[in-house]
Amino acid sequence: MACKYKSPFAFRLTVSRHSVLRKYVLEDEITPLPTGHSDILEEQEPEFCSKINPRSPFTSMMVAHDCRLIMGPGRQGEVFGIVALLPDERMNEDPNAKQSWVSEGSLEKMLDTFSEFPDWIISIFKHSRDLGLWQLHDINPLRTWYRGRVLLIGDAAHAMLPTQGQGASQAIEDAEALGAFFAEQADSPSGEEIGRIFEVDVFRSRHNRAGLIQAYSRQAAKPGTAKGAKTVTM
Fold it and tell me: What does pTM read for this prediction?
């Protein structure tokens, strides 16, 4: 997504992981990195959730060696959502294939992947109405977030895995920093002044923190247990 801040300043922000402007800013093509994991998005009616109250406003997680389930209610308890994190090879997916939110996952492969999980959770999968697949990507910390009057924020600047739930939060922090550093600008600043604020203020104040959370998010995506063990070590 890109948005333009019109007055009193003229510059362009871009926040998407699939940012077109990132190539302009860096003068180089940065390809989001496959992480070897994919999200399966599943919606299920509450009656199948016999062990967890789907109307309770909290998120539950079940962890195995190299796969996990994150579950929680939606639509005021009318549906129960499950995000399943698992290695790409368990789904036989092509990591170079074009991804979209409408890519279909394989229920048979999912049942096989989670066969060691309790029967009550497996029974939910079998009643699934909709199984979607989304491959997870992130990027390494970028050397800069700006060029001229163009500034990258959010996923365009520091795409990260969803394991810490920090993607949107970091975009908000970027925007807050941007607003704070431009708050004292009463008149339209010059291109040089905008560049100075982008580099000295916004980038230097945000780059290390965002990069650290990128690293934490990658760490949290690693196997939750030693192979063959039942003790969670993540």
Answer: 0.69
